[in-house]
Amino acid sequence: MHLHCYVWTGMGEDLRDEADRRVPPPPGDPASFISSPLPPMRTCDWLLKPARRIDATHTTVDGALAWLAERYEAARPSFLHPDAEAAIGLGLRLDLAREALEGGVDVQWGFWLTGGRFTTCGVVCCSPNRHARHRCPAA
C-alpha cells in the first residue's frame, strides 16, 4: 500500500456545488467530476482525479503524517477560529490520523480560513483502498 496526498483551497461557498463533487452513478458521465477542481464528497474518490492532482505520495504512514502536519502549519495563520482549533490541536489530529491510516482508513481534514476560504487536505490509501476499487491514478 502507498498513500496519495491531496490538497484544495478555495472559496467555501464553492463546496456547495455537489454535482461536481460526486461521482455520477452509471451510466452517468464522470467528466465534470474528473475535471472539477473541487474536492470530492468521498475521500476515496480523489483516486479518480488525474494524477496531477496528487500533491505528494508516501510509502509510510510517518511520511503522510509529516505531510499533514506541514499542511496544517501552512494553514494555521489563516484559521478562522484559531482558539477552537487549538482545543483540538495538531497532536490529537495526528494521533487519530495515524490510527486511521494504519488501519487502512483514509484521512480528510478541513479548515475554515479567513475571507470565506476553506482548505482541505486528504491522505488516501491506495492499492488497495478499503472504500472503493479505484485504480491507482499514478499507475
Main sheet summary: 4 strands, antiparallel
Q: DSSP strand (E) fraction? A: 15-25%
* SSE arrangement, N to C: EHEHHEE
Please state how the strands of the largest beta sheet are arranged side by side.
Answer: 2-1-4-3
How many helices in DSSP terms? Answer: 3
The overall average pLDDT, rounded, is 96
In total, the number of strands is: 4
Using the CA coordinates, give the radius of gyration: 15 Å
Query: Can you tell me the residue ranges where pLDDT is under 50 for at least 5 consecutive residues?
Result: none
Helicity, in percent?
25-40%
Name the overall outline.
globular
First-last Cα distance: 13 Å
Total domain count:
1
* SS-derived structural category: alpha+beta
Oligomer: single chain
Provide key terms for this protein.
alpha+beta; 29% helix; 139 residues; 4-stranded antiparallel beta sheet
Describe the structure in your own words.
With 139 residues, the protein is α+β, with helices and mostly antiparallel strands. The protein has one domain (2-126). Helices cover 29% and strands 21% of the residues. The chain is built from 3 helices and 4 strands; from the N terminus they run βαβααββ. It has helices at residues 31-35, 61-75, 82-102, and strands at 2-11, 56-58, 107-112, 117-126. Strands 2-1-4-3 form a 4-stranded antiparallel sheet. A hairpin with a 4-residue loop joins strand 3 (107-112) and strand 4. The longest helix is centred in the middle third of the chain and has 21 residues, at 82-102. It is globular and about 45 Å long. The model has no long low-confidence stretch (mean pLDDT 96).
